[in-house]
Write a structure and sequence with these properties.
CATH class: Alpha Beta
Strand content: 35-45%
CATH superfamily: Mog1/PsbP, alpha/beta/alpha sandwich
CATH architecture: 3-Layer(aba) Sandwich
Radius of gyration: 21 Å
Distance between the termini: 51 Å
CATH topology: Protein Transport Mog1p, Chain A
Largest sheet: 7 strands, antiparallel
Helix content: 10-25%
Order of helices and strands: HEEEEEEHEEEEH
Structural class: alpha+beta
Oligomer: single chain
Length: 192
């Protein structure tokens, strides 16, 4: 004689065998910023949170931030510059230790109209985000008759086909100053 509880357990076990990833939670961050705050020594500090199914990451952006599930944008007030955090799903895992593959990936994400693209530098672990290895590609290009410099820091939360890009583009006159400010802000990232 079958009991209803046993049938339920057998059905659940069978469903899990058919869908082995059914209980796995995604660690992919939703980059829609959620305002939050915490208090430190009596001072209330504003932070931004990004959530995944299993956790959240906190960040203190240097500029106003807005976004959607796959990209958070930070236009720099009063300047021809913008910083972005982007989640990118790759067709196959990107080997962040392969400089040529990383350069090709970053340059391939430039607008089609980009001209005179020159990769200036590829730097490993320029900074680590929660002890995760990174690689940074710095390049310059011309678009619409104006020259821009771009810094893109690539990192993965876990091995696989999801890469997070922390990018800053600006005109050459402001690039280094803004790059330093953006990079310093990345040290505020927690639980990445």
């Amino acid at each position: 004689m079958n009991s209803p509880g046993r049938n339920c357990a057998v059905t659940l076990a069978f469903a899990l065998l058919l869908a082995p990833g059914a209980l796995a939670q995604s660690d992919k961050l939703n980059l829609t910023p959620v305002d939050s705050a915490f208090e430190l020594d009596g001072v209330k500090l504003k932070i931004t949170r990004f959530y995944s199914e299993a956790s959240f990451v906190e960040y203190s952006p240097p500029w106003p931030i807005a976004g959607s599930p796959e990209i958070a944008r930070m236009p720099v007030p009063g300047m021809d510059a913008q910083a972005d955090i982007q989640r990118v799903q790759t067709a196959v895992p990107l080997d962040l230790t392969n400089d040529e593959a990383v350069k090709k990936f970053v340059t391939g994400r430039l607008p089609k109209e980009a001209e005179d693209v020159e990769v200036a530098q590829v730097e490993r672990d320029a900074l680590k985000i929660n002890n995760k290895p990174t690689v940074e590609v710095t390049l310059d290009y011309v678009i619409g008759g104006r020259r821009l410099e771009l810094s893109t820091l690539l990192v993965q939360r876990s091995p696989g086909d999801t890469v997070y890009l922390f990018s800053l583009s600006a005109n050459p006159a402001n690039f280094q100053k803004l790059r330093q400010l953006f990079r310093r802000s990345l040290y505020s990232i927690t639980e990445f």
